[in-house]
Amino acid sequence: MVEGSVARLEKIELGGVEQWILVRGMDPGAPILLSLHGGPGDAQIPFARRTQAELERAFIVVNWDQRGSGLSYRRDAPLSALTLDRLVEDTVELSRRLVKEFYGEPIVLSGHSWGSILGLLAAARAPELYESYIGVSQVIDVAENEKRLFAWALGEARRRNVARAIREIEAAGPLPYSTPKAFRTVRRWVGEFGGRWKARKESWLALATLLDLEEYTLGDLFRYAKGQRTSIQALADDLAAVRLSETIHRLEVPTYFVSGRDDHISDPSLAREFLHALDAPRKGWAWIDDAAHLVPFEQPEAYAAALAHYAHDARGPKALSWQIAG
What we know:
By secondary structure, this protein is an alpha/beta fold. Helix content is 44%, strand content 17%.
């Protein structure tokens, strides 16, 4: 731990349930960033040291293993308690706690993929808690997105003439998918074709994490895997029903979206259409090149620069003129 920095792993209670947060930053006076992980169930704490060094120079970063995910997974917790609305309430409760603990000022809220659904809904529900909202690989309309994802995967398989991919993707359709396996199959091929991770396989990050565990034990990684499965099972219906373009037309906080140029998991055009129509005090969009869906892991420096830029922009009457790297 660097002298003067902030670094702690802490068990807290949200909605009557014990959950875990990791708080890290180089400057104790930096803005607070609550980062909402993807998934459902893709807890981010075990990867923070590998991917967030630059982010921690600009913010005090709060990573939270959401209810049912990672360190916050409990085998005896009822699935009925794991809902989208409950997770939004947890987000608001944690945000209020952070505002009270750090300076009493609104915080920066960011969500990636699944976390971007929680983020938008939390910003709409309790705007007084947030200085800005930054959606990364923002999800808007899950049903429409799934149609585009499926069409891209099949089109790419045909363009590349990959017979196995064509066969498996066609067998997985038509939408809606008949089984969870069909859902996973299409996403696996999107990943193979570079629509989830642009340049590298995700396995390198998993291996690097195994070699450098700090906040997690090997046993916690098994808990992580169980939390993923449980979260997807419990939240599948809530996720499928998400149509944020129908429910959110105004946000009272500055709102910014960041997208990988080659994202084919969360179609950027849906997010751009939503942002263009959204009524908000300030708005912005950043493309990150050489990245697909997993921007925070693929291009951590450009991702950190984008978040720092927009957190600054939200405070001033005039937009900054310098360009975002990436």
